[in-house]
Amino acid sequence: MAEKKEDTQLDAIGRATAQLKKAWNAAPSQGVPSELVFNEKFERCAENMLVTGGAGLLAGTIASLVFFRRGAMRGFAIGVGTGVGIGSSYTTCQYKVYGSTNTCNITDKASLDE
Fold first, then answer.
1. What is the pLDDT of residues 85-97, one digit of tens each?
2. Are 74 and 65 in contact (CB under 8 A)?
3. CB-based contacts of 90-96 (< 8 A; 24+ apart in sequence)
4. What is the dihedral of CA 38, 40, 44, 45, to 10 degrees?
5. DSSP class of residue 32?
6. Selection from 102, 89, 103 nearest residue 44 by Cα
7. In this predicted model, what pLDDT tens digit does every residue of 10-65 receive, in sequence order?
8. Residue 14, class by beta-carbon neighbours within 10 Å (0-12 exposed, 13-18 middle, 19+ buried)?
9. Residues 33 and 24 sit within 8 Å (Cβ to Cβ)
10. Cβ neighbours of residue 78 closer than 8 Å, sequence gap 6 or more
11. How far lies 43's CA from each of 20, 30, 40, 83, in Å?
12. Which of 46, 50, 60, 98 is deepest in the core (most CB within 10 A)?
């Protein structure tokens, strides 16, 4: 009985995984719920933020150890490295979720002249 229950749970997990993989590459008009698409994109963005933030932290730590002797400057270098990594990840996620990083859409040049 317990074995059959585990098999049905594994089947459900397999179906959900297949649906998520399909949702990542599918267009919204293909009948995939938008929640699945958003959740998959969010998970990838969170993973990317951890990886690039960690890489920035590592790069900042190495730079602080090589170039600076005082504690305040070391902390500053570590913070800048981490910020650059997280900022890069944020930009990448914004591009993946919204399709473009262009946040300034100027359509009427005449309004700029006023």
1. 999 999 888 887 7
2. yes
3. 90/49, 92/45, 92/48, 92/52, 93/41, 93/44, 93/45, 93/48, 93/49, 96/41, 96/44, 96/45
4. 10
5. -
6. 89
7. 676 677 666 666 665 555 556 667 777 778 888 888 999 999 999 999 999 999 99
8. exposed
9. no
10. 57, 60, 61, 64
11. 11, 21, 5, 20
12. 60
Which amino acid appears at position 8 of this protein? Answer: T
Question: Which token pair is 78?
Answer: 């570590």
Rounded Cα gap, residues 62 and 77, in angstroms: 9
Nearest partner of 23 among 9, 7, 47, 42, judged by Cα: 42
Confidence (pLDDT) at 38: 79
Q: Which of 98, 58, 105, 99 is closest to 78 using CA atoms?
A: 58
And the tokens for 70? 């005082």
Would you say 37 and 26 are in contact if contact means Cβ atoms under 8 Å apart? yes
Q: How far apart are CA 8 and CA 102, in angstroms?
A: 46
